[in-house]
Automatic annotation (TrEMBL):
<dbReference type="GO" id="GO:0030257">
    <property type="term" value="C:type III protein secretion system complex"/>
</dbReference>
<dbReference type="GO" id="GO:0030254">
    <property type="term" value="P:protein secretion by the type III secretion system"/>
</dbReference>
<dbReference type="GO" id="GO:0005737">
    <property type="term" value="C:cytoplasm"/>
</dbReference>
<dbReference type="InterPro" id="IPR000194">
    <property type="entry name" value="ATPase_F1/V1/A1_a/bsu_nucl-bd"/>
</dbReference>
<dbReference type="GO" id="GO:0008564">
    <property type="term" value="F:protein-exporting ATPase activity"/>
</dbReference>
<dbReference type="GO" id="GO:0046933">
    <property type="term" value="F:proton-transporting ATP synthase activity, rotational mechanism"/>
</dbReference>
<dbReference type="Pfam" id="PF00006">
    <property type="entry name" value="ATP-synt_ab"/>
</dbReference>
<feature type="compositionally biased region" description="Pro residues">
    <location>
        <begin position="127"/>
        <end position="137"/>
    </location>
</feature>
<keyword id="KW-0813">Transport</keyword>
<dbReference type="GO" id="GO:0016887">
    <property type="term" value="F:ATP hydrolysis activity"/>
</dbReference>
<keyword id="KW-0653">Protein transport</keyword>
<keyword id="KW-0067">ATP-binding</keyword>
<protein>
    <submittedName>
        <fullName>Flagellum-specific ATP synthase</fullName>
    </submittedName>
</protein>
<keyword id="KW-0547">Nucleotide-binding</keyword>
<feature type="region of interest" description="Disordered">
    <location>
        <begin position="118"/>
        <end position="139"/>
    </location>
</feature>
<dbReference type="Pfam" id="PF18269">
    <property type="entry name" value="T3SS_ATPase_C"/>
</dbReference>
<dbReference type="InterPro" id="IPR050053">
    <property type="entry name" value="ATPase_alpha/beta_chains"/>
</dbReference>
Length: 449
């Protein structure tokens, strides 16, 4: 009796690889506004699942499931829905992930990991990284690291930042927060900079890269961009993808600076998605899911697990509507982050940039990272600026006579010198030691007048 020999294991593996993968197909049954309704896949789907719509004669359109209703899946697309019609095939796609690789440094990509800079395809890392991930456990997370040179005197002296800290930059439109971010991207002390441009104007991308970042800044950066005309899923994904990239480098032990412009546009994208999925509007039209998603994103920045030397220092801009710093998104973000920096339009109109309002800005980690002499110098400067602001109207009206109060006279002499020290051009680079030296010099010089 002849017994046929079994094929060796390597040949079996090769045979399995040649088999066509299982493909699960559904179809589009309705489309309206931003929302698609799919049927035929409900038992295999969950919220967040990715599919590809395959319209005849057109490129596939990636979509994501955002909810369910009456046994059917509700989905939204990452691209325009041109050509999508009832009956269009919907194919279940692999789980979402970004194949991050160190060779991505110096590149500009979209939220799905496709190049936007015309420099050819990206090399893929060995293991895709999920764009949604929990933060390190609160009980095992490392503490904040040493203080960090941000390269901007006003921040280094009055809102000193530590490695792994999260700072918010709150400003209305046109006050200079994008310019301030470009100064931080070029001058901050970090190994890797990850820059998320969420809902930005398309024309500003090359200006930011070529004029603000420059060749040296771009070489250590990865820029993730979703322009204002992108669908809401792409704008949301820009923030999630940038965070996943930052986590990749931080887990490898690198010091990462994550800059996101802006959290407000991320929240607006979440609101569009939530309303399309059937969530009820609440405060100013924002859906409850927005305020659940914000801490899930922002808490991922910071130190990694104990024993990992890497950390993500997060700088997040918040676009306040109508100069209202108590609007819902600004209020929620301020309560999550480790400090806030306020940019004031009136300061910019006076010609002092960056237009940071020192008296309304705060870093919650300052007590743990300043030397006693530096802390005393900062408190004195704050007190002088506060007294000057308090007396400014009386001085303008001529209601204050010089010599009436020595403290006021001192404030009137010193405040302009402090303001001059805070002014900084876009190309200037400073450090914490330089910032406090400049502040001390301004005060000492004025004392001798």
């Amino acid at each position: 009796m002849n017994v046929q020999a079994k094929p060796p294991l390597p040949e079996l593996r090769q045979a399995f690889r040649r088999l066509d993968p299982l493909r699960l197909h559904g179809r589009v049954v309705a489309a309206g506004g931003l929302q698609l309704t799919l049927e035929g896949l409900a038992p295999w789907l969950q919220v967040g699942a990715r599919l590809r719509l395959v319209p005849p004669g057109r490129p596939a359109v990636p979509v994501e499931v955002v909810g369910f209703q009456s046994g059917r899946a509700t989905a939204m697309a990452f691209a325009p829905l041109d050509g999508i019609a009832p009956g269009c095939a919907a194919v279940l796609a692999p789980s979402a992930g970004l194949p991050v690789d160190a060779s991505w440094l110096g590149r500009v990509i979209d939220p799905l990991g496709c190049p936007m800079d015309g420099r050819g395809p990206l090399r893929h890392g060995p293991q895709p990284r999920p764009v949604r991930a929990p933060p390190p456990g609160a009980g095992t997370r490392a503490r904040l690291g040493a203080r960090l040179d941000l390269g901007v005197r006003a921040l280094d002296a009055f809102a000193t930042c530590r490695r792994g800290q999260r700072l918010g930059f709150f400003a209305a439109s046109g006050v200079g927060k994008s310019t301030l971010l470009s100064m931080l991207a070029a001058g901050a002390d970090c190994d890797v900079a990850v820059i998320a441009l969420v809902g930005e104007r398309g024309r500003e991308l090359r200006e930011f890269i070529e004029d603000d970042l420059g060749h040296a800044g771009l070489a250590r950066s990865i820029v993730v961009c979703a322009t204002s005309d992108s669908p809401p899923l792409m704008r949301r994904e820009a923030a999630l993808a940038a965070m996943a990239i930052a986590e990749h480098f931080a887990d490898a032990g690198r010091q990462v600076l994550l800059m996101m412009d802006s959290v407000t546009r991320f929240a607006l994208a979440l609101r569009e998605i939530g309303l399309a999925a059937g969530e009820p509007p609440t405060t100013r039209g924002y859906t409850p899911g927005v305020f659940a998603e914000l801490p899930r994103l922002l808490e991922r920045a910071g130190p990694r697990a104990e024993g990992c030397p890497g950390a993500i220092t997060g700088l997040f801009t918040v676009l306040v509507e109508g100069d209202d710093h108590d609007e819902p998104v600004a209020d929620a973000v301020r309560g999550i982050l480790d400090g806030h920096v306020v940019l004031d339009r009136a300061i910019g109109e006076r010609g002092r940039y960056p237009a940071i309002d020192i008296l309304r800005s705060l870093s919650r980690t300052v007590p743990g990272c300043l030397h006693p002499a530096e802390a005393a110098l900062m408190r004195r400067a704050r007190a002088i600026l506060a007294l000057h602001a308090e007396m400014a109207d009386l001085v303008r009206l001529g209601a204050y006579r010089a010599g009436s109060d020595p403290a006021v006279d001192e404030a009137l002499r010193l405040a302009p010198r402090i303001e001059a020290m805070l002014a900084q051009g876009k190309g200037e680079r400073s450090g914490i030691t330089d910032a406090f030296a400049a502040l001390a010099t301004a005060l000492e010089t004025a004392d001798g007048v």
